[in-house]
């Protein structure tokens, strides 16, 4: 009787999942891992450097740099949620992950992605206030307000992603436990179910369009207003400085959203896209932003660039 109960339980929810990695490219896993590992190390070093420089230099304790700190933290968590497990799959053949471990990874992947999207929106709002309402900048974006915005970014990600776990828990898997991917994500798990996944599909699409899509619309709106304000500035030098600061942020936004939306829509509608292409893109959209964000801000933001140079040369 007990064994039958255990069997029924494992049939409904498997005790483990097996992550295949990149199907059809298993022989190249060890080589593919090298560039991914290199990018992961760059992401860790770059974002840790940004955090250290900003946190140890009180002159940089301004709203823009505090939001950059929050972006670096989300970048570190985002790439660390998937890359260590992927490297273990590629180099050591450790393909198994527990059922609850898989759901935990899924939750963090989607929640941190939603949080980072909210952080980018907050940074756009920061630039809007700084350029369009400079006299009220410090009054609007004080330390208390920045803390509340950061907390709201995290809470929003958690609230909208938590239903993914409920939607997965209700599904029977009928013994299916092999995921053709390098990490656990919502639709990848749902597609293993032997029941209707229509609620999963509808909610996933709703979250993507209502949260991430709305963030993109609001960010675009803020930059249209910023552009109008910058073009009205009398000084060409002031215009250049404003464009330079906003240019770095726009680069970060494009790097974050373009591969993410491409991966999202190919996963749901691009049935002719080879699975290898989709899986590589799904890994890159979680890894490329954490690698490039410190480089973009380090190159385009004078204060950060000078302090990074001083940090590595000892001339601070």
UniProtKB/TrEMBL annotation:
- Report the subcellular localization: Cell membrane; Membrane
What is the protein's known function?
Answer: Odorant receptor.
Question: Which InterPro entries does UniProt cross-reference here?
Answer: GPCR_Rhodpsn, GPCR_Rhodpsn_7TM, Olfact_rcpt, OR51/52/56-like
Q: Tell me the PROSITE patterns matching this sequence.
A: G_PROTEIN_RECEP_F1_1 (PS00237), G_PROTEIN_RECEP_F1_2 (PS50262)
G-protein coupled receptors family 1 profile domain span? 46-297
Similarity-based family: Belongs to the G-protein coupled receptor 1 family.
Q: Would you say which domain of life the source belongs to?
A: Eukaryota
Q: What is its main location?
A: membrane
Query: What membrane topology does this protein have?
Result: Multi-pass membrane protein
- Key words, A-Z: Cell membrane, G-protein coupled receptor, Membrane, Olfaction, Receptor, Sensory transduction, Transducer, Transmembrane, Transmembrane helix
The name on file for this protein is: Olfactory receptor
One term of GO molecular function: olfactory receptor activity
The Gene Ontology CC terms held by the record are: plasma membrane
What organism does this protein naturally occur in?
Tupaia chinensis
Q: Where are the transmembrane segments?
A: 30-53, 65-94, 106-125, 146-168, 202-230, 242-265, 277-299
């Amino acid at each position: 009787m007990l064994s039958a109960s255990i069997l029924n339980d494992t049939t409904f929810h498997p005790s483990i999942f097996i992550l295949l990695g990149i199907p059809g490219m298993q022989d190249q896993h060890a080589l593919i891992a090298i560039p991914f590992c290199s990018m992961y190390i760059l992401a860790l070093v770059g974002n840790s450097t940004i955090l250290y420089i900003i946190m140890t230099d009180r002159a940089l304790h301004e709203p823009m740099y505090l939001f950059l700190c929050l972006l670096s933290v989300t970048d570190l968590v985002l790439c660390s949620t998937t890359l260590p497990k992927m490297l273990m799959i590629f180099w050591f053949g450790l393909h198994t992950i527990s059922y609850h471990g898989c759901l935990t990874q899924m939750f963090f992947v989607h929640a941190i992605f939603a949080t980072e999207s909210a952080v980018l929106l907050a940074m756009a709002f920061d630039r809007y206030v700084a350029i369009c309402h400079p006299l009220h900048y410090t009054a609007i974006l004080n330390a208390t307000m920045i803390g509340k915005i950061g907390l709201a970014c995290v809470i929003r990600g958690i609230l909208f992603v938590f239903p993914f776990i409920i939607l997965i828990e209700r599904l029977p898997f009928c013994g299916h436990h092999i995921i053709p991917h390098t990490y656990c994500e919502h639709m990848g798990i749902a597609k293993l179910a032997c029941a209707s996944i229509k609620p999963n599909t509808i909610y996933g699409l709703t979250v993507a369009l209502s949260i991430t899509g709305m963030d993109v619309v609001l960010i675009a709106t803020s930059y249209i207003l910023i552009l109008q304000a910058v073009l009205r500035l009398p000084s060409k030098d002031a215009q250049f400085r404003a464009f330079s600061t906003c240019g770095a942020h726009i680069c970060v936004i494009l790097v974050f959203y373009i591969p993410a939306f491409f991966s999202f829509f190919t996963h749901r509608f691009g049935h002719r896209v080879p699975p290898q292409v989709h899986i590589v893109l799904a890994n890159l959209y979680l890894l490329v932003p954490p690698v490039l964000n410190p480089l973009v801000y380090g190159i385009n933001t004078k204060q950060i660039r000078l302090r990074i140079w001083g940090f590595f040369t000892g001339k601070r």
